[in-house]
């Protein structure tokens, strides 16, 4: 039997679950089991649990067939525990390093108490860590083991279940279980503390309590479910009524109850406006029902609130609250007036447009900071034109890029009055990055974030840990992300990362990447056309070299000696080079292009045509590898500076260990691989297959259609995915040529 059992309820936490489990499995103390309860989670959480359980026998997974809520999920896990002590850990929180060792040592030192209370700290998206403000209550003073009557101030701690270790025999003897509904911790923690004969404390942070910026916390949810708090305190006082010896706790818990009710009433973002009066009257009824004999109200403002509840004086409560709101509103209007007075004429025009009705049949598209008509937004726009031609499609384009807009595409210049009018009035805003900070998200508008690649390098909040991103304003970043209604994903790996690093209230759409539809659906004629546009002859092998952006390099300086590589590859091989769009034109590449030794395709749009034309891809850390893998053609990873890149930028997996094909870390090795054809051998194909199944999970050629049907046409049910083994993909250049010869 293990010494410790950890019960971890799991629901919609795919972005945080691995971090939680890693914090447990990485503990120096190993005598524990994990009972993980998948509460019928609709995301990938259940699969993540199964993958961890396959590799560690200490993890036992329970998959519930229906969603039962946090309390009953904990009960399901509790029934399976076998340890001497039970701990609860929420699946978006983590254990601190050495936490279980400290807990085990303290339990032994105090002779196995009924309850051990330990400390925690709050962690925030911006890497702040705030200590528990009442941590001083856990300082060791007096006997090691005591009853609550000896230290009643422990009731002032935040009453949560996961900052304690409970002796399993004590739980069974006391008959403790979790009730359904919100605030399920209250009956458990109060009833356990007042019942325990032996309590001990541990003055050490053992849990990092994640403060999600949005979502994942009932305290930030507007709902009538907050009325559950009445049932929870009814359970507490029923528990006391059944145990005469506990009557001494009636008054302290009455105060806790009233304070809790007042908190629910006063905190914004909990009760619907039309439910506040009903809640107040219910709270007043409980006040009178549970009022202890001889009770004296607190002094000052808190006591006046108690008095209003006792009299059920809702009108007086509203009047007092309204006076406070008026004072706040006056200050806000004053600040707003000052801000508006400083706005420019264009900004004033934008404000006037925001007051006009939304155009239900207008969609604004942008890609790569309005540099081009491309990527996922372009694929969605094309599909929208086929399926809903009545919706006008307008592109936001920078003034210096308007000459590259394809003929027939409607656009507005970024910064113009037409641009701001379109942003103000469009029903739909689609982008693969974020719109400018000044863009206002109107009620009724729909923002679609398509992203522009599967992340190998760290993104969003994860970038805070790495030196390459010290210039970023992460608070501003998240304010921009707050505007999203939908976030697209091409695989579950990406979904989990997006939801963690952009913790906002959007809906994830696992559709596949619209831009990759062409890689699935292209014909032999499309492949031949793409090669002809690049001047590639029928017998020419074409390698596409696409290195990524490096924040620590000011310009595009290829890590390859491109001239030597072209010479080594020989006259029958064409080397196409595409620099990252951040770098613009490269004098180095331009010189080689003039010499005729390479083809510079840095300005070629769309990039999908390059993929179709190329026999193989050479890249380092670019997200191009995830898209090109859809074609099931060879991918060569050239990673001479992996140690530097992964340290400076941070990555989500080790590309050298999980590549989509062969790997070279030097130019000599790359030349050998290309010359030997090892890059297209069976070992490379096996790696590519595993890579495709993981990262091209949803790319079945119908991603654009899924997005249009869901977002623009309002269909709720997503199109089913074509089974992976049945998915087509564009023929290779050799196959396309063979089809011509046969004809």
From TrEMBL:
Keyword rRNA processing: no
Transmembrane segments: none
Membrane topology: Peripheral membrane protein
Subcellular location: Cell membrane
SUPFAM superfamilies, alphabetized: Nucleotide-diphospho-sugar transferases (SSF53448), UDP-Glycosyltransferase/glycogen phosphorylase (SSF53756)
Keywords: Cell membrane, Membrane, Teichoic acid biosynthesis, Transferase
Superkingdom of origin: Bacteria
Pfam families: Glycos_transf_2, Glyphos_transf
Residues in Glycosyltransferase 2-like domain copies: 5-169
Record InterPro entries: Glycerophosphate_synth (IPR007554), Glyco_trans_2-like (IPR001173), Nucleotide-diphossugar_trans (IPR029044), TagF_C (IPR043148), TagF_N (IPR043149), Teichoic_Acid_Biosynth (IPR051612)
Family affiliation: Belongs to the CDP-glycerol glycerophosphotransferase family.
PANTHER family to which the protein is assigned, alphabetical: TEICHOIC ACID GLYCEROL-PHOSPHATE PRIMASE, TEICHOIC ACID GLYCEROL-PHOSPHATE TRANSFERASE
Name of the featured protein: Glycosyltransferase
Species of origin: Streptomyces composti
